[in-house]
Write a structure and sequence with these properties.
Shape: globular
Structural class: alpha/beta
Helix content: 25-40%
Number of helices: 18
Radius of gyration: 22 Å
Mean pLDDT: 96
Number of strands: 14
Low-confidence stretches: none
Bound molecules: cobalamin, iron/sulfur cluster
CATH class of the largest domain: Alpha Beta
CATH architecture of the largest domain: Alpha-Beta Barrel
Length: 454
């Protein structure tokens, strides 16, 4: 069977940053690649991960040094396949890495096959080929298609492989039963780096945390989000998941987790069972989870609190019903207020996230957002400026306006970071800036007082 070296590109905040401080700008451990690599390893493949996020942090932001460490790892591991995993925000760094790999192997008699998978190659395979010289791209979930590749099946026979010059990408087959995945082998990366105490959960308190995933995908289709555009929605069994928590807790020395699912309410019955198992086991884990407001009720929240939930994340998105409708968010302002009241009654801290600069937004809508923040009194607040992300309905329906801006790969990364310099609201630029500043100030005030609420 062939061997594979996964490469995780670095993130922008690390480039040239000699004073990187993990606690203040924590990186989330790459559970997706670790899980995929662990699966392939369990099937007999030789695997390794070049984690250039951690590497660049250790190289104090020096990209050249980081790449030379990658070269050393390539020489030592001598893989048959090098597989990059990235989303749009890291597109330009993936290009830099592949350029380096081609120069590393220039003149060699044979070189590893260089491929890519993950969010960006899946959503925009043709754009990926326009900028990067990959031998093949893999579209969709990687377990089955990569296994077939490493097993030696010809590329054109593997569902999910998209070759240069091909016209239509096809999604790979997926594992129906997620419990067939072995527990992630965190020794494949530097788990101590990721589990350092940091502000991943709270701006004012430090926690040592590791990420876990109960279910993949999302059944909703909010217009601004790319989340569900390719992962089919399904989850682990509650028993498997609780054993996985035990396993990660033991192997990484943590008792606090971030549950990465888009909403644990999407598998409500199963998540309630996870909570009951956690309560019965007396494990005493603490965890953060994301939840859609329309999936919350007092009984569910009380159960989660008892099972160790220390924070919930809600996408309230806007205080304006008109904007929520335009986003196809399928929640109401009233539901946001209700869920906030329930959290206050039960003593569950919560994080609410808002999007501003949405299509047709007026100052009245922003006023409504501010009122909702004041009414709901979140423990943590996020104010995100809207920018259409590839893979979302909003990106697809505005491609004509966006594509003239995408003149080089760096601009793609900016788009991937949700930072397109475009105004979509219905107000003059200076009025938007006024509201942007005002809401960001509110965010700063709320976040810096977390835990000290009167
Ligand atoms: C958890 C998460 C994060 C975490 C951790 C990310 C990480 N370490 O990878 C954090 C919080 C750090 C994060 C940050 C951001 N995120 Co995010 N994130 C997610 C989320 C919710 C889940 C990702 C996940 O684990 N999925 C489950 C695993 C199993 O799926 P997967 O990663 O796709 O992996 C499978 C396949 O892709 C494939 N695969 C993966 N790698 C490889 C490699 C090879 C070689 C092959 C063949 C296959 C393969 O096989 C895997 C297993 O089947 C997704 C939503 C989603 N559905 O993907 C958004 C998502 C990926 N994030 C998104 C965005 C926009 C961001 C941010 C830019 C937000 C921001 N403004 O800060 C930042 C970017 C940070 C950066 N600088 O890179 C977008 C990306 C859209 C796009 N076009 O790029 C998504 C899709 C959500 C959305 N808003 O629409 N994110
Ligand atoms: S915003 Fe949340 S609920 Fe909506 S599609 Fe994205 S992940 Fe799903």
């Amino acid at each position: 069977m062939k061997s594979i070296l996964f490469v995780i590109p670095w993130t922008w905040g690390l480039v040239g940053n000699a004073d990187y401080d993990f606690a203040d700008a924590p990186e989330r451990a790459p559970e997706n690649v670790v899980s995929l690599a662990t699966y392939l390893k369990s099937q007999g493949a030789r695997v390794a991960i070049a984690d250039l996020t951690r590497e660049l942090a250790l190289c104090r932001g020096n990209v050249e040094e980081c790449l030379s460490h990658l070269g050393e790892q390539c020489r030592l591991f001598n893989p048959d396949v090098i597989g990059l995993s990235f989303f749009t925000a890291r597109f330009e760094y993936a290009a830099r890495i592949v350029g380096y790999l081609h120069s590393l192997y220039a003149g060699a008699e044979c070189r590893p096959m260089i491929i890519a998978g993950g969010v960006h190659p899946t959503l925009l395979p043709k754009v990926t080929y326009e900028y990067i010289n990959f031998d093949a791209l893999m579209v969709g979930e990687g377990e089955i298609s990569l296994m077939q590749l490493l097993d030696g099946r010809p590329l054109h026979e593997i569902k999910g492989v998209f070759l240069p010059g091909q016209d239509k990408p096809e999604q790979a087959d997926v594992l129906d039963d997620l419990d067939r995945l072995p527990f992630p082998d965190w020794n494949l990366v530097d788990k101590d780096f990721y589990s350092q105490p940091s502000h991943q959960i709270s701006a004012t308190q430090l926690h040592s945390v590791m990420p876990v995933t109960f279910g993949r995908g999302c059944r909703y289709r909010c217009n601004f989000c790319a989340h569900n555009s390719f992962l089919s929605a399904r989850c682990h069994s509650p028993q498997y998941f609780v054993e996985m928590l035990d396993n990660v807790a033991r192997s990484c020395g943590v008792s606090t987790f971030i549950v990465q699912d888009s909403s644990v309410g999407s598998f409500k019955q199963q998540w309630a069972e996870v909570c009951r198992l956690l309560i019965d086991s007396g494990a005493n884990y603490r965890w953060w989870a994301n939840l859609r407001v329309n999936q919350a009720d007092e009984e569910f929240l009380a159960l989660m609190k008892k099972a160790g939930c220390i924070k919930l994340f809600f996408g309230f998105e806007s205080g304006s019903s008109r904007i929520l409708e335009r986003m196809n968010k399928k929640i109401t302002v009233e539901q946001c207020i209700n869920v906030a009241d329930m959290c206050h009654r039960l003593g569950i801290p919560f994080y609410s996230s808002y999007i501003i600069n949405y299509f047709g937004e007026t100052e009245d809508d922003l006023q409504a957002t501010e009122e909702l923040i004041m009414r709901t009194r979140p423990d943590s607040l996020a104010i995100n400026r809207f920018s259409p992300i590839p893979g979302s309905v909003d990106y697809d329906s505005n491609e004509a306006a966006i594509s003239p801006l995408l003149t080089d790969i760096h601009r793609w990364s900016i788009l991937g970071m949700l930072a397109a310099p475009l105004l979509f609201g219905n107000m003059p630029a200076e009025r938007f800036e006024y509201w942007n500043k005002r809401l960001k100030q509110l965010k700063y005030t709320i976040n810096s007082h977390e835990g000290n609420k009167g």
